[in-house]
Amino acid sequence: MSILDQIHSLGLSLPAVPAPIAAYVNCVRTGNLLFLSGGLPIDGDTKVIGKVPSAISVEQAKEGARLCILNRLAVIQDEIGSLDKVKQIVTLNGFVNSEPDFHGHPQVINGASELLVEIFGDKGKHSRTALGVAALPLDVAVEINLVVEVED
Amino acid sequence: MSILDQIHSLGLSLPAVPAPIAAYVNCVRTGNLLFLSGGLPIDGDTKVIGKVPSAISVEQAKEGARLCILNRLAVIQDEIGSLDKVKQIVTLNGFVNSEPDFHGHPQVINGASELLVEIFGDKGKHSRTALGVAALPLDVAVEINLVVEVED
Amino acid sequence: MSILDQIHSLGLSLPAVPAPIAAYVNCVRTGNLLFLSGGLPIDGDTKVIGKVPSAISVEQAKEGARLCILNRLAVIQDEIGSLDKVKQIVTLNGFVNSEPDFHGHPQVINGASELLVEIFGDKGKHSRTALGVAALPLDVAVEINLVVEVED
User: In this complex, do A22 and B113 lie within 8 Å of one another by their Cβ atoms?
Assistant: First the structure.
């Protein structure tokens, strides 16, 4: 089964490739590594907004983390043509729009990590840094960037 | 025209290579990749200080982001001898010293991104993560690190 | 002298390899690079907790940064079999659980940087980004991730 079929079998689909909201590009390839820009939990009119947990719940922010991954996968597919060429998700940085006394960042970012493993299996097992930041662009609840190894 | 000439044609010049303010080095090369330390908006007596936007405006912080890039370029030149050997700016992380309710981090970091494209053209087009952090060393307004691919 | 002997000669030892606290792995290798997950200052019942400097001092947080490095080294040894195969510590990101008006992040992260140089000598000299974040998982005082180049 292709990775795209696997995504569909989970009841999911890839959103449109997001336009960068400023003067940069979504992805740069160097050798067999893709360095992806920080993705936001936005898909059309769906925007996962607010500081956790005062303005948005952990569960909602976790859903936002899943959405970040889906649009990052759209970027990867756009860059290399097929998600089947992903060799390994190498590392993931997950930044949560966090109240100073919130400590559940791992639970939020698990939305991203668990989805990567559901989609890619062992190839989706990545190293990770999860933490809470003071504020994020557009007041989104979570921002996620990735480094991904691809086939030659 | 060399990259250094291009910098001069923009009315800019490279500052002195900054001394790391602690027990680390400015840059490490691995293969054809340079991993640069986080650069601060400091050049001699010029220091772009303060939390955005309460203590310093978006425009001033954006100027700080440009200054970070200029001293990062000084580091690259010092490391590889010439900026003409830069093959691609791969990725940039821009950390803004941010009030919890500020969301204009992309505008601030555009100071860095736009300057890289003005200087390097397509080679300056990078992936990027911009976000707001609780505090930065020396209370600077912005801190930026880079991964850069260089010629053999 | 082996790196492990050097660690012991400093009166230190490697802790157990920590279990990731969520759905990710401690380390992914791509080519000759290891990308390590963010490590926390936890070793058994020892946990370096709290926001700096209101709940925990700079000196205590610096000790936490050392502890992060020791468990990152345990991860590296587990991944590649021996710390003697480390070719270069490439880059380090140090995130301090920071009050908004604290600016001494370099002093905290020096606990990590200085220890790497004590242990690895020139191979331990890395590029670095140190900054203050709003909150960290489990309310730890500091979180550190690394990119490390290893021998073939």
Answer: yes
